[in-house]
Recover the amino acids of this structure.
């Protein structure tokens, strides 16, 4: 993983694999600290064993490096990564914080592109993205709403992807990322 | 506020719609998007295919993502499903490979041996 954008995409894929159909992402960036929280309604984890690289739910290979790599990337900057089950039925919440001014911090990468890619890669998932600016949380993306507006036609149309890219580029710019 | 039953029905309906709409295609390209694929640049590969589809004004090709295919060292990998044909799997599909596969296999039905991983198996 070269950058944060890759990591975000990877975590999102975890949610999809856990059969989630809604994923809520909240991000903020202030005073050089990047905070991100990802909540899904998937099957949930059973403990913190997911942070062990030699544990994976997958059958195709026996190691799972996605989360351990992100944890390492966060901790290298003096940040943290926490993951917990939401309730008995499942659901997972993952939070991490990174000090982007730290010399070991990975670059952001292309965050707007990541959200456009997610939209295209998993057309059946509803993503809601909240961005916190000046202590105010604001919803900037809702894939469900975007699809609702669209009548029949291609679900993941290239125009929609552009629209998401535009919204995200504007939002990310105001975050000074 | 709608009750739970109504919401469940709505969800089923939307799911069906999605399947229906995603179902009308001649070619399906599935890009492996496990941690390994992403780290190897699978997102670039996917975007290259999307651009090629747009450039060639194709509406009968869809691109989707799946998890790890199990051969992490050869990522980015893709499956190509052409209607009525056996699926083909390619390995090490970077931007250049994507262009070759698109022109030769998807547009002209010629399998690109250089990046071929397997034929006929899922």
């Amino acid at each position: 993983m070269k950058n944060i954008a890759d990591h975000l995409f990877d975590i999102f894929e975890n949610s999809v694999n856990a059969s989630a159909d809604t994923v809520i992402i909240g991000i903020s960036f202030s005073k050089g600290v990047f905070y991100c929280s990802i909540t899904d309604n998937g099957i949930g984890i059973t403990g913190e064993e997911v942070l062990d690289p030699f544990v994976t739910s997958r059958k195709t290979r026996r190691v799972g490096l996605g989360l351990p790599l992100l944890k390492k990337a966060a901790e290298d900057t003096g940040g943290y990564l926490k993951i917990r089950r939401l309730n008995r039925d499942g659901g997972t919440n993952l939070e991490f914080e990174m000090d982007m001014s730290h010399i070991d911090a990975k670059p952001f990468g292309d965050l707007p592109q990541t959200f456009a890619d997610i939209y295209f890669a998993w057309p059946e998932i509803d993503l809601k993205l909240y961005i916190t600016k000046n202590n105010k949380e604001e919803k900037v993306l809702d894939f469900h709403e975007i699809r609702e507006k669209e009548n029949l036609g291609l679900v993941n149309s290239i125009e929609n992807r552009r629209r998401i890219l535009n919204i995200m580029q504007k939002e990310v710019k105001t975050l000074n990322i | 506020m709608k009750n739970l039953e109504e919401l469940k029905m709505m969800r089923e309906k939307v799911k069906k719609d999605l399947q229906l709409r995603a179902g009308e295609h001649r070619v399906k390209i599935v890009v492996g998007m496990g941690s390994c694929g992403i780290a190897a640049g699978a997102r670039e590969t996917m975007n290259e295919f999307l651009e090629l589809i747009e450039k060639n004004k194709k509406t009968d090709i869809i691109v989707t993502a799946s998890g790890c295919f199990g051969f992490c060292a050869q990522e980015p990998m893709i499956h190509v499903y052409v209607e009525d044909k056996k699926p083909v799997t390619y390995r090490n599909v970077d931007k250049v490979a994507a262009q070759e596969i698109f022109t030769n296999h998807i547009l002209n039905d010629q399998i690109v041996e250089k990046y071929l991983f397997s034929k006929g198996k899922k």
